[in-house]
Amino acid sequence: MSRDSNTRRRIPPGIFLIKSVRGKDWALKSYRYIILLLTFIAYASYHASRKPSSIVKSVFYPESLKNSKVSPWPVGNVFIKEEEFVSFDRNRVESQGWYPFNQSDGTSKLGEIDVAFLACYSSGMYVAGHLGDTLDLRLFLTTGMIGSGIFVGLFGMGYFWNIHVFWFFLSMQMVAGLFQATGWPSVVAVVGNWFGKRKRALIMGIWNAHTSVGNISGSLLAAAVLDYGWGWSFIVPGALIASAGVLVYLFLPAYPEDIGFSGITDSSPNLESLSQAEEDRTQKGPVVKVEKSSGIKEGSGSRTGIGLFEACFIPGVIPFALCLFFSKLVAYTFLYWLPFYLSQTEIGGEYMSVKSAGNLSTLFDVGGIAGGILAGYISDKLNARATTAATFMLAAIPSMLLYRTYGSISRTINILLMVVAGLFVNGPYALITTAVSADLGTHSSLRGDSRALATVTAIIDGTGSVGAALGPLITGFLSSKGWDVVFIMLMVGALIASLLLSHLVIAEFTERSHKSVPSSHGQQTDEATGSQPLLSNQR
């Protein structure tokens, strides 16, 4: 009786209600679709709530008040109606900015706001990862999302309360950063709990489009309500993530065991589905069957985690974490400063409005979606995580150089080069934070039934987030010396990121050179991640 009560306590209330009404359970495949959808929505809303600060930078600090005499970017009035564009541009010329960001040190203060958020985000990530492996992931994620929504909204309330105190905005971003740290370790752990390693990089590469979708939707939402006051650019995304948090609480099962499925492990002979007998029993039961196996493992409340120090010694964790440091330095500089760069840079002899620049910057994330999927596909095909990530980072260097050099020639060239840069910059970032983290979090060196998905994800992404904090901060200072200096910094960062994986790349090439000599078991082991070949069970 007690066991049944504990199991019901772990079932999300929304799923429990639906199962009670239907009188039967869903198949494992259906639950996996639900997991992918809910975690996609969850983390897309996280990223959407981070975009407003980049959209309003030129409102806070209207450094260059230049009129545009052409239709809005990029094609006529697709993004903004022409009459609205003229009105908004006139308002921008008359605007004096928002104190204290409209002073001579305005860009520095904006950089400090970014680094305050990201510093708290990265430091909180280490704690959040360990907590995610020991607490109920559903409740942990829900708390983080609602808390993020509240403090993002409070930042926007500074507009309506007419607040001009720098420490208010700084403190709101810092607290929001701590709540945001709950997101990534949690969603990666949930997906890792429900999916085996077969085609993991491709699945997660597609799933990781939530980052770019969140950036795009956040930019469009913030820009859409900007005319009503910059405060709404924060309040609307804040309400979005809080609402998504309620959805997660109602419907997200963090572990298969939470809803009665036996443990899904990578050592199972068939990772992709339950046995036919179990599927039939699931579908035909006249009443809700919570426990499907007498030997069921406990779910959210009884997982054993490992310490941060111990997780650092998992092979591959440190190299990938350091690589992500520089990879996110580059990616987050674009995330936070690209709209500002576009509004302050003469392209084709003309300048665009703040709103149009914010909308245009979403095309960088369109390239990022393609990059994440492509990197995942190549990584699965070659079974070479490090080689794929390093190659993409090297390719990002000429793509950024071309964007800076030729992006100002015309609108069309700027769009094409921006998409290409987004593809190569976000590709390795997406691969490392998803498939690589999940692989290492279930590494063969972990003892017994220990799980380190959230902990390893926190170490890798937390280290990367330190770089994400430094990039926008340094850009705030370097941008006053010219954008060429900023792009040199970004290209050097991409080069270092690729070099940090050189040892793992050599190991992967060495392993591939021995492929012609099959082992006694007909399998090879990935030295970089400790995973078995992803497609070996299909041969």
From TrEMBL:
Chain segments annotated as transmembrane: 30-48, 139-161, 167-195, 207-226, 232-252, 312-338, 358-379, 386-403, 415-440, 452-474, 486-506
Membrane topology classification: Multi-pass membrane protein
Q: Where is the composition biased (Polar residues)?
A: 516-539
Q: Keywords in alphabetical order, please.
A: Membrane, Sugar transport, Transmembrane, Transmembrane helix, Transport
User: Example GO biological process term?
Assistant: phosphate ion homeostasis
The domain of life is Eukaryota
Q: What protein is this chain from? A: Major facilitator superfamily (MFS) profile domain-containing protein
Protein species of origin = Gossypium tomentosum
